[in-house]
Amino acid sequence: MTIQEFNEILDFAVAREREAVEFYRDLQTQAKFAAQKELLKELELMELGHIKVIENIRKQGVQDSQIPKVQNLKISEYLSVDADQLDLSYQNILIKAMKREEASQKLYQEMSRRFADGEIATLFRKLAADEAGHKLIFERLYDEWISAGN
């Protein structure tokens, strides 16, 4: 893999994260309650953090040993809703976030399988694991919320 190819892949990943930042910013303008806006701001900041992680990969690279194994509660996979059609209740914000992270994870997993180059595949496995970790955060929040009787 050339440095140019590596950077193009990272540019692609950064662009996806910037889309997510804009997604949460847009939702903030639609939210009606301060608590919703605060949660959406936290999600926006999390996505900005993803960009920093990717930029660190650009500088330092990534090794298989840096790819964490992430638990999957599979809550997102069992929810058969069109997240784009949901209102902005707390539960639905979590569903939207879970579904978005799930989609990103699946994209990166597919990309890791499509590239024969070991470095590129490792990079996409790392990005998929990061997205899985983010999805797990939202799944746990959702599980806690449902368990509390909501």
Task: Label this structure with key terms.
single chain; Ferritin; 150 residues; globular
Oligomer: single chain
Number of strands: 0
What do the pLDDT scores average to?
A: 90
Report the sheet with the most strands, covering strand number, pairing sense and barrel closure. none
Distance between the termini: 50 Å
Strand pairing plus helix content: what structural class?
mainly alpha
Shape: globular
CATH topology group: Ferritin
Q: Helical residue percent?
A: over 70%
| Alpha-carbon Rg, integer | 16 Å
Low-confidence sequence ranges: none
Order of helices and strands: HHHHH
Beta-strand residue fraction: under 5%
CATH superfamily: Ferritin, core subunit, four-helix bundle
Provide a count of the helices.
Answer: 5
**What is the annotated CATH architecture?**
Up-down Bundle
CATH class placement: Mainly Alpha
Q: How many domains would you count in the coordinates?
A: 1
Q: What topology emerges from the helices and strands here?
A:
Blueprint: H1 3-30, H2 34-60, H3 75-78, H4 90-114, H5 118-147
Helix pairs in contact: 1-2, 4-5
Quick take:
This protein is mainly alpha-helical and 150 residues long. It is built from 5 helices and no strands.
Characterization of this structure:
This protein is mostly helical and 150 residues long. It has one domain (3-147): Ferritin, core subunit, four-helix bundle (Ferritin, Up-down Bundle). The chain is built from 5 helices and no strands. The N and C termini lie far apart (50 Å). The model has no long low-confidence stretch (mean pLDDT 90).
